[in-house]
Amino acid sequence: MKKTIKKPVLSIGPFHPLQEEMEYFQLTLDGEIVTDIDMRISYNHRGIEKISETLQFDQVPFLVSRICGICSASHPLAYVRAVEELASVKVPERALYVRTIITELERIHSHILWAGLAGHFIGYDTVFMWAWKYREPVLDLLEEITGNRNNYGNVKVGGCREDIPNELKPKILKEMDEIAKKMDMLIKAILDDPILHARLKGVGILKNDDAIKYAVAGPTARASNVAIDVRADDPYGEYSELDWNVIVRPEGDVFAKVVVRLLETLEAVKIIRQALKKIPDGPVAVEVKEIPPGEAVGHVEAPRGETFHYVRSDGGNRPVRHKARAPSYVNVPSFKASCIGQHIADVTITLAAVDPCYSCTERLAVVDGHNNITHDYEELLRLSREKTARIMREA
Amino acid sequence: MSWKIKYLKKAPWVFHVNTGACNNCDIEIVDLLTPKFDVERLGIKLVGSPRHADALLVTGGVTAQAAPRLREVYRQTPKPCVVFAIGACACDKGIFTNGYHMVGPVDKIIKEIDPNAIIAYVPGCPPKPEAIISGVVKALSAI
Amino acid sequence: MNQEELNKKISEIKDKLIGYEQPLANRIYLSCEAENSYALNKFLFEDVPLRFVIATGIDSEDCFEILYHYAYDQTGCVVTLKTFIRDRENPSVESISPFLPAAEWIERELHDLLGIEIKNHPDMRRLILADDWPEGVYPHRKEAKK
User: Fold this and answer.
1) B98, B101, B103, B109: best to mutate for the C interface, most C CBs within 10 A
2) Structural domains of chain B in order of their starting residue, each with its CATH number
3) How large is the ipTM?
4) What whole-number distance in Å separates Cα of residue A228 and Cα of residue A218?
């Protein structure tokens, strides 16, 4: 059934504002209020699931690590969990702790990155610069542990490829102290800022029943009172042995999503500190010779939400079928529910609050069918920042 | 040396194009603006339109959907301009070589409309910000 | 509900299933024919209720399979409903998007990549393949390899 869009159309798409074709995000407007939205995702389609079938089981982690840059620890872990379930592999305890530490470090730098971007979209560029500056030491730490700032290549079927040397523990703990201090400062600044309250509260609300209908995951769900977190629901790593909290907020607006992510960063610090204390000695991998025929699923809590993989094997050394689901696949469509009824100035921050890949939010260009005015990404950004400035003046 | 090339070498204004990248290279590019690397002090500026650009920073191995857009952006960019293929995907499709939806890499798509295009390659997965800066500086000095 | 209660709840639809496996306490695999897919999905999402995760489409040589994956977060259980589409010439299944908007994208993807007709889908347009990708070429089908 083909949809015909009659009202003026806001096109949110890649690079070139004067192109007339349907782009990434297309919004239907009534005046300055969004009434409908349409999305295409073919830009990033690389055919990864099919490529998996040409790789051997132990090569796939390197492929899926590159599904998304900021969830690059979660995808291989979810895949590997599925294969380990298939083959009934018992992963050594030390490996579980190493995996936990690396995924939590990724959560920290991903949430800080997001905080910076959110600041950028509403005109708090100091937050942007500050956040991305304090993200760097975490990336340096990951580089020291795994050899790369992103795409760690650390996880493999049976455990980890590399260990965290015990000599690094004091350095990691010191960095956690630094991060905790900075996050405390940022959280306080945000929670106490009346401008941010006025700018972000009540904006881009995703109602609880929409959150369930769109089956959203991660902070997007938890900020709408859907208390799900794979680390608590179907524990992996050693989350069930550690003391930490699932952060949930009922309001469903952008502000709630900000709070959830910031507080989760502090929980991540808590988890890493405990993991470093409790990590036992021992091997970080077992050898896995064969993957028997069968099927299994694996899921983990990535910074954006549940990352889910399904693997089917026929006993050979390549997967017969491999399904990879990133959390953005369910979170981005929910933008439809949270964006309708919003003002054009709130579109960038509402989309950003769902935390899609950075490039998705960059692909904003507007074509107003009525007046033939083109609003590109810069223009939408300007409108968003203008709204913040207006709130500051009226405060 | 034309005045355009002269200014390009001194203070290139760059436009970032994602042709289906996983975002790692894109984030490292944005990282260049942040305090640790701060390329603006070197005169490198990220612009919002290809029409203002001296150079394109292209990431991704070029998916079938992105190819026409990449060609269009290249056409829009005033010549002479330098196309930087940032990352393994942009240089040679990287780990996605066998993907049915991949039509790149970047040089193949660009050369379809301009066989004499100036293309520089910065490999890595992703290349560290230092590597990107080094690659850009090396390429510009060689022009 | 604890896991035992969940197992009991799910067994309410046993008569519509052609298979039931529980290889682990918190992993359940149900099998059914395509004509029962709509009713079973509705039961799992609305009556149990479970959280929809994603659907996997598989070309299994003599048939197509759509695996609908659900999660029951209180016990960390993953319930997978395997729907068998026996008609290879004209594979089709009823859309579950009318009651489950979360399935809209994946159903469009199943159509794009496997060529399965999703009946009564509210918005069956191309989602994941490029605009100029040829019609009738389904990359996830086995014959696409040749």
Assistant:
1) B101
2) 3-142 (3.40.50.12280)
3) 0.96
4) 7
